[in-house]
Every structure is written in C-alpha cells, then in structure tokens.
Specification:
This protein is α/β, with parallel strands linked by helices. The chain is built from seven helices and eleven strands. Strand 10 and strand 11 form a beta hairpin. The N and C termini lie far apart (51 Å). The relative contact order is 0.18. The mean pLDDT is 92.
Amino acid sequence: LNFSYLEDSGVPPPLRIVENVCWDGLSSDKADFFDASLNARSGPTCEVIYLKGDPNRIIFRTHHMVMDGIGTMLWAEDVFRVLRGEKPVSFFAELTEYDLIKRMGGKPRVQFPQNNIAPTGKSDGIPSLKPRWIRRSVTGRYSNLIGQISVLSAAEARKYSEGNFYVSIPVDLRQRNNYFKTTRNFVGIIYVEVKPDNSVSDISTNIRHQLENAEDLNFDIEDVYCRYIPVSIMKKSLTKRVLKRHSRSRYGSSATISNLGYVDIGKFTGGGFNAETFFFVTALEYSPAFITLSGSKNLVEITLSVPDVLRTNNRDEKLMDAIVSGLVPKG
C-alpha cells in the first residue's frame, strides 16, 4: 500500500551453482533453473546463478519491483568490479520514479484504444499466462531498432487480422535526473501507434516527439490508485483482465519493445570470467509480445517472450524470423 515500502534485509542475494550442459541459451526450453521464485515480500528479490556448462554462464535474476534492466546491469557491473578486486560503487538512491514524475509535473496519460491485435495473431487454446522466450544474435550495427521492429511486428500482426497496433516502449527516467545512477526500477512508458502506412522514420519521429515533450513522465490514473490497493488484489484483478483479453484476442498494447542499448562487454569481466556476449530476458506473461534488445561491439541480441496461447504452431519463431530477416543495418 501507499505506506508500504521495500527495505534492505541485509541478507546478500543468494548464489546458486547449477550444472546444465544441455541448455543452449537460445530459449527457455530446458531452463527450469529460471523457475525459482523471486518473492518481493519474503525474498530473495534477486539472485546470481553460476551455470556450469559449455560455455559457462553467469545469470543475474531480479524482481522487476526492485530493479529494471538498467538497474540489473548496474548491479552486475558492481559484482564484476568486486571480482576484479575493485571497490563496489553501490548505486543507492531514495528517489523513486514516482517521486521524479511528481516533481517534474507528469500528467495523466491520454487514453488510447485498448483493443490492439497481437503480433502472432489470435489466442489459441485455453487462456494461460505462461510465456516462453527465444533469442537470436544478429551481427552488424543498426539504427532505429525500435522503429524497425515496430513496423515489422505490425506487418506480421496484420497477416492474421486487421486492427489497432500500439507498442509500449519503456524509457529510462534516469536521463531526466542528470543521468544519475540507481539500481531501482526507474522507468516511464510511452505508447506509439503503428499504422499500416507508417515507415520506420515515422515511428522514430513519433518517439522523438514524445520524448521532447516529456511524455515519458505521463502516468495512467490507475497508477495512482494502485498505490492504495493490496498487491494480492491487484494481481488477481490483472490476471482476470489478461485472461479476458486472451479470450477476445485484443490487448492493451500489441507489444513491448525495450532497448537497453550498446554496452561495453568488458564491464562483465573479472574473477577469471570473460564475457563473450550478454543478453536480457523479460518473460512477462501480461504482454502479447515482449522484445528486449541489447548490443555490444558488432552484435545485437534480441529476445522475444510470448505467452503459450499466442505461440502455437511456432508463431513466436515465425515472428522472430520476420524481425531478424527484415532488419536493415546502417548503410
């Protein structure tokens, strides 16, 4: 509730050592080590997994209530500092994204249609919240990735049916506060409509316009009310809403696309571990499709999470194929 808050228990996040030589890192298949609960009430809210296999991997898992993608990356960087024998930085901040939005005059969001089509078509089977994720690595340097993937995903959706297609895009609000560093969840959201005749340039212009007008500070009215509603009731209500949307094959937004940008891979080296690549997975059961992007050197990692009811007949793989084959590198 509004008077509730998160408090550091003083207990270090657990380190799990898991032996799994079968997992190829390309999907959530054969990866039951991801199923361990991260409990915001009782903890742990984050953990580190040392996955012994070929190759060895280090996995940082975090509860989204505690950290966002950038926050998770900052935490991982600090762990590797210690592994290199350096002092940790520790990115503590009392300021929340809600505090920042209030301070900077965020406004109630203008509502948009809540009957959007999904990139993989209609729900098939018994409504379920269980998602599966897949991953692809793409070589080359790319610009306007969110714009490109928005247009490609909308084109795939319209192969199944016509309808509204809105993309939700998480925005790092740290840039609104002099790029200060905190590991806490510190994101705003903007929504972009993708019409049948929109170009990649149109989408990029729309995004730029919203950011110039600080629309990433806007909020939904329910964001205010939910601060006074017990989490258990919110979860039950949200689950009911999502299952209803699956039954109608119409959604609040068509997809979420999160771009974490290009990162120096050398930050994830230490203690005898030398990272060759890194990628993020957001297996969010409430979104018809959740696409996460991250890059290093001449490589872009793309992960796609889709609920089971929207990926029958390999529809998630087909969507990923369309995205990867349709991307245009920098000229």
